[in-house]
Amino acid sequence: MSFLARHLGPDAAETRTMLETVGAADLDDLVARAVPRGIVADAPLRLPAPMSEHEALTALRRIAAKNRVMTQMIGQGYAETVTPPVLRRNILENPAWYTSYTPYQPEISQGRLEALLTFQNAVMDLTGLDLANASLLDESSAVAEAVLMMRRANRRSTSDRVLVDARTLPQTLAVLRGRCRAVGVELVVADLTAELPEGEFFGVVLAHVGVDGDVAELAPRVEQARAAGALVTATTDLLALTLLRSPGEQDVDIAVGSAQRFGVPLFFGGPHAAFIACRKGFERNLPGRLVGVSTDSSGRPAYRLALQTREQHIRREKATSNICTAQALLAVVAGAYAAYHGPDGLRAIAERVHGLAARLATGLAAAGTTVVHEHFFDTVLAQVPGRADAVVAAAAERGINLRRVDADRVSVSLGEPHDERDVDAVLAAFGAAAPEQDAPEGAWALPGALLRTDGYLAHPVFNTHRSETAMMRWLRGLADKDLALDRTMIPLGSCTMKLNAAAEMEPISWPELASIHPLAPEDQTLGWQELIGQLETWLTEITGYAAVSVQPNAGSQGELAGLLAIRRYHLSRGDRQRKTILIPSSAHGTNAASAVLADLKVVVVATAADGSVDMADLRERIAQTGDELAGIMITYPSTHGVFEEQVTEVCAAVHEAGGQVYVDGANLNALMGLARPGRFGGDVSHLNLHKTFCIPHGGGGPGVGPVAVAEHLVPFLPEDPAAAAADPEAEAFPVSQARWGSAGVLPISWMYIAMTGGEGLTESSRTAILAANYVSARLADVFPTLYTGPGGFVAHECILDLRPLTKASGVTAEDVCKRLIDYGFHAPTLAFPVAGTLMVEPTESENLAELDRFVDAMRAIHAEMTAVAEGEVAVEDSVLRHAPHTAEVLTADDWDRAYPRSLAAYPLPELRLGKYWSPVGRVENAAGDRNLVCSCPPIEAFAAAERAEREEALEQEAAR
């Protein structure tokens, strides 16, 4: 059987049934009536013929074999690590974890929320700070986020200058230069090992551990910064912090870095979970996602996403960041790594790594080689006048990669998997003999002023799961609390929760792909270059653009890269005044935030009654903007789930006014093989490989957001950060710290395209459109679809209008989402882009039985809402308002509700055959935001809830 038959949910018979329901003769007829004729592609996709799963895996094996797996001691922000097999198999390779969605619906996300809270707690403990978020995209962009935080939070300073340590990672400096240039921040890079330079700065970025390995005491520079009215960010290393005095103890405001060395493979540059931690008072400036603790309807502790993501979306152009995602799956791995090893295990790893570095330094010094820094953690910088190339080459002959700093210096970074034999091989490459014994006690020891004296990771979660059995059961218990795609359809509109096939996922763990350093010599990465080159070529063909860059490691970064390309294009033509971007009112919140980060002014365009862009308002905005128009951001198909007929007219109007057209590719799942944004008027698009091209969401990340551009914008694609770091004067704008961003998950999309081919991608789009129209038609009489195209059809998603019945009954769309949990479903997208509605995207991967199961659930809920509307039960007493129902509530001795237990637990007969039980009742979000807690609650919190419940039961018994 072909892969396509495995990927598509409906078979031929089911497709015929669905076509009859929507009133189309066949898929050709449906597409002809749903997709505007003016945008239809004039030729089929020119992609290689589809392969079977075995053929594609074999072909990818041949490509991967062209990479050379080495012992990696390059460092520069990346460390070799050991992924414990229990974590690799039970998290990275487990669909219960990688197919889950962002935990916006907390009741069915308690497992992944607890895992992310564990990560946050580990970061907070190790950095010594009060708050940490659920991860950021990479270390370099995290530093940029920290700079923007300091600028916004520092009310004492009116300066636009930030001071950055010259010891910072080169790729971080490259990303930071571009980001600061875009928003008008003056970046000053200086040697901060002595005094701070004169002048006013709103913030200072210090390197706790420099790129060359030297460890610095932060407190003296922090004190100077405080006196100058500046806030302070420190870049740091989590493993080193098991030994080193924490940033929090040294009065730092913000700490950032990468959690990659906590069990996450090199992945040729990513995905890796960056971290950001801060002092209290920065809560509303913290970017990304923050997991907090609240209570559920029974008063028990319950986890949920706190205020961050919602606030950033609501702020739109006033947002402090465009980051609404995380590297959740990788943060889960890093948090579990900390829990598996615990404080003693992590410290032992750190001491061993430092001991190996000291052994290396001892051997070098004994051979007369100058070791540049006296105080280091895991990286030794050696002075070898004129011999750097020879040393690096000699190490490569021994299967080891070192870092050539310049012609006279070589850097060696040690990691968890390295041993004495590796160190001795490196010494041989330097021409030094292996030491007869380890470094003498006290040699190369870190001084007391640098050492940590306080404890960390004292919570039971970091001191319980020592055996593999315990860790396996903990992870299984967490996964069992959640609803992911391995259990049920996730009908989220605009999020494309389609199949993440096992054959697509399998290659990411291959050492030939996962163990390659992003800065390895190019002759060692030929396989990666071939894979990425093919993928970029295929994406170029699919989108109709001239070129694609896969560097952006999230949709938000793809947006930023695309908008920066537009801004830089106008600047190259002398049009500095073109700084206004038009954005429809229905757009995703990150669109506006990304525009601000690209130094663009946002003007909102109204939505017409049919959900399309209001053409009259558009023309008026264009006229008002005049020669200040930079362009427009539109999503196609629209955020309202329709193919707008006038999209070519919108593009033409903007082009005539001298603007550029940004087509948000979030909904490309409805376009593959049918239409190409680069051919119907787009100048630039970002794509979401974690949606359309099968990279899984992983509980909220990893994501990849490639940017595709027309010919005239090719020069303005994101630059290689390594090249940009080598030429600080060049106006480069890399958006991620690695040249190819989160390369480690690109094999997933390569496999998907290789196994489907052009015809398969087209069939996927056609089937996705059919599935959405089927759900829309089946629910039309109870929950009508809010917007449709001229032919009465939707694209790949539909917005169900609950507002009339909500008005009649008082039952809200949120109540419906909570009640769907009792039916075993993740909720659709709630209240976006229209309040009081639900947006449903079935995808092409769900079969007819699963679509009907969802339809049956929604129709049953409609009946429950109708009963409330007709006065049979008050909304406050209804099964909807009390949903979801936990097993604990339903098995309690007392039951005083206005509906039977059976209706709460088994509203449809088939649920008796397999039932998902929500681990918590409805979570109190408002209470959690009022009392923000973002660390692991003590066990006593759960015990207190149990005691309160027992006492209440005794009181009720006494009353009876």
Automatic annotation (TrEMBL):
Q: Which Pfam families match?
A: GcvP2_C, GDC-P
Q: Its biological function?
A: The glycine cleavage system catalyzes the degradation of glycine. The P protein binds the alpha-amino group of glycine through its pyridoxal phosphate cofactor; CO(2) is released and the remaining methylamine moiety is then transferred to the lipoamide cofactor of the H protein.
Positions of the Glycine cleavage system P-protein N-terminal domain:
6-430, 465-718
Q: Which GO terms describe its molecular function?
A: glycine binding; glycine dehydrogenase (decarboxylating) activity; pyridoxal phosphate binding
Gene3D superfamilies, per the entry: Aspartate Aminotransferase, domain 1 (3.90.1150.10), Type I PLP-dependent aspartate aminotransferase-like (Major domain) (3.40.640.10)
Report one GO cellular component: glycine cleavage complex
- Cofactor(s), by name: pyridoxal 5'-phosphate
The record's section on PANTHER family has: GLYCINE DEHYDROGENASE (DECARBOXYLATING), MITOCHONDRIAL, GLYCINE DEHYDROGENASE, DECARBOXYLATING
The residue ranges of the Glycine dehydrogenase C-terminal domain are: 765-885
Q: What is its EC number?
A: 1.4.4.2
Q: What is the protein name stated in its UniProt record?
A: Glycine dehydrogenase (decarboxylating)
Q: Which domain of life is it from?
A: Bacteria
Which keywords accompany this UniProt record? Answer: Oxidoreductase, Pyridoxal phosphate
| Residue list for modification N6-(pyridoxal phosphate)lysine | K691
Q: Which reaction does this enzyme catalyse, per its entry?
A: N(6)-[(R)-lipoyl]-L-lysyl-[glycine-cleavage complex H protein] + glycine + H(+) = N(6)-[(R)-S(8)-aminomethyldihydrolipoyl]-L-lysyl-[glycine-cleavage complex H protein] + CO2
Family to which the UniProt record says this protein belongs: Belongs to the GcvP family.
Its gene name is gcvP
Offer one example of a GO biological process linked to this entry: glycine decarboxylation via glycine cleavage system
The protein's organism comes out as Kocuria flava
The record's subunit annotation is: The glycine cleavage system is composed of four proteins: P, T, L and H.
Q: InterPro entries this protein is in?
A: GcvP (IPR003437), GDC-P_C (IPR049316), GDC-P_N (IPR049315), GDC_P (IPR020581), PyrdxlP-dep_Trfase (IPR015424), PyrdxlP-dep_Trfase_major (IPR015421), PyrdxlP-dep_Trfase_small (IPR015422)
